[in-house]
Amino acid sequence: MNKKLKLAVQKKGRLSEKSIGLLRNCGLEIENFQERLIVSASNFNLEVLFLRDDDIPEYVQENVAHIGIVGENVVLEKNLDVEIVKKLGFGRCTLSLAIPEKNKVTNIQDIQNKTIATSYPNIVRNYLNENGVEAKVIELNGSVEIAPSLGVADYICDLVSTGNTLKQNKLKKSFNILNSQAVLIKSKKLDNYDELKILYRKLLDRIESSLKAQKSKYIMMNVPKDSLKEIIKIIPSLKSPTILPLADENLLAVHAVIFEDKFWEINEELKQAGASGILSIPIENIIL
Ligand code: PRP
Ligand code: ZN
Fold it and tell me: Which one of 145, 165, 183 would you pick to mutate in the ligand 1 pocket, going by the greatest count of ligand atoms within 8 A of its CB?
């Protein structure tokens, strides 16, 4: 029987849908996972384990799951022996100090001798130590945001993404302790298993090409023949742009892949250089 690569993802939470979305973008067929804890991909030797996010680093450390997708915040809090392979660019959030709306805290010194409730006691204690501030840290595993209204703590330290949870609980963000996003982690023991290592490399290649594609766009435009040299200089294409003749002999069509973070700047420059009819379309995958 073929060995299967085991990948752990969050069962229910901010990262669940997007983690499965990333795998599906990599061409993996994964059935609806709603009620099941283990699901096999039908076209890849992969088993997806749906776990509580806080448990994922430990499962990966023990090589029960060979790899995992989890928030960097959880990996740093657990501080276990796993390798962070890659930041995945989704599930971005901050671990922030949040305080009741009516309060005012401008810097870390203002929390001296206060009580802070958090699910991230290790990260928070380290942060306090680094800043030479003494405060009491209370560890809570859920519903941290109600601690101030119950009088359990003065402030909280929790993940903030949209900020809705804070608003609903009449809290506001004061300052950030950590920026986080989803990461791919890997068991250090995986390298001892040749068959699994090959599957892992294959999956990682697919993940990388899918991430690259998400950050890129395919653009197409018409350019006057005279402007071609200038236009080519503006396009930071993957390799060389494609140039095609058009019915109008004075014009050429230019196609190229560009990175999204420069998309608007490049478009403006292209327009100024004489390009017209600029179209852009998303890319599903890039294999270099
Ligand atoms: C975090 C955090 C808040 C929520 C904040 O929970 O504990 O409840 O997200 O998001 P918002 O700013 O968009 O309202 P998470 O989904 O990571 O789950 P967990 O902490 O229960 O594992
Ligand atoms: Zn959690």
Answer: 165
Q: In sequence order, what are the beta bridge partners of 276?
A: 222
Neighbours of 137 (CB within 10 A): 17
How far apart (Å, rounded) are the C-alpha atoms in residues 271 and 265? Answer: 10
φ, ψ (nearest 5 deg) of residue 193: -120, 100
Question: Is the CB–ligand 1 distance for residue 72 below 6 Å?
Answer: no
Number of Cβ within a 10 Å radius of residue 221: 23
CA dist 150 → 117, 146, 147, 153 (Å) = 11, 6, 5, 8
Q: Whose CA is nearest to atom 18 of ligand 1?
A: 13
Measured between alpha carbons, how far is 154 from 152 in angstroms, rounded to an integer? 7
| pLDDT at site 239 | 73
Atom of ligand 1 nearest to the CA of 13: 16
DSSP-derived secondary structure letter, 284: S
Q: Which residues pair with 6 in a beta bridge?
A: 47
Distance in Å, CA 135 to ligand 1 centroid = 23
Closest CA to 55 of 36, 35, 41, 75: 75
Q: Is the CB of 55 under 6 A from ligand 1?
A: no
Q: How far, in whole angstroms, is CA 146 from its chain's centroid?
A: 27
Q: What is the pLDDT of residues 190-223, one digit of tens each?
A: 999 999 999 999 999 999 999 988 888 999 999 9
Ligand nearest to the Cα of 158, by number:
1
pTM equals 0.87
Quick one: tokens of 232?
């080519």
Report the 3 state secondary structure along 119-145. Answer: CCHHHHHHHHHHCCCCCEEEECCCCHH
Dist CA 98 CA 120 (whole Å): 13
